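So, is this right?
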Amino acid sequence: MKPIIGITMGDPAGIGPEIIAKALSKKEIYDKCRPVVIGDKWAMEQALDIANVQLKVSGIERIDDAACNHGTIDVLDMKNLPLEIIPHGVVDETCGRAAGEYIEKAIHLALDKEIAAMVTGPINKESFDLGGYGKKYRGHTEMLAGLTNSDKAFMLLASGNLRVIHVTTHVPMRKAVD
C-alpha cells in the first residue's frame, strides 16, 4: 500500500497552500503516495481559487477518513482559523500559531505512525514568532528536533539524485561565509 504523506499547510497567509494546490493537481503524486494536507479546510479552498486549480477539498477529522483520490484534496481540518478571509502576504499572529500547530500535529501523527512521512509548507518566521513558537524554535528543523527529543536535526533538500544538507541554518550569508 502507498504511504500516507502528511503535508503541513505552512502559513495560511503565505504561498504554501497555493503550492500544495498546484502540486496535488498532478495525478503522479497520487500514483506514488496518499497525500493528506494538515491545515484548515477553508484556507485550502481559498488557495484553490487563488491558484485557479479545479479541485475539490474534503475536510476530514481523522487520517483514516482520507480517500486520497486525485481530484479531491483531503485536509485534516484543524479549524484553527476564524472563518474569514486571511489577507495574503501579511504577518499575522493567528496564522503563525496555526502554522506551528500544523507542524506539531504532523509530528505527532508521524510519531504515532498514522503517517509515513511529513512535508512542510513554508512558514513566515515573523508570524511564527508572533504566534508563540519563535521563543522556543527558530524554524521547522529545530521544532522537529525538539518535539522528537532528538539531539540533532538537519534540513535536507532533494531533487532527483541531488541531496543537500545545510551546514548552517537561519544565518545570514555574509556571516556563514565569514
The first helix runs from residue 16 to 23. The radius of gyration is 16 Å. The mean pLDDT is 92. The longest strand covers residues 34-39.
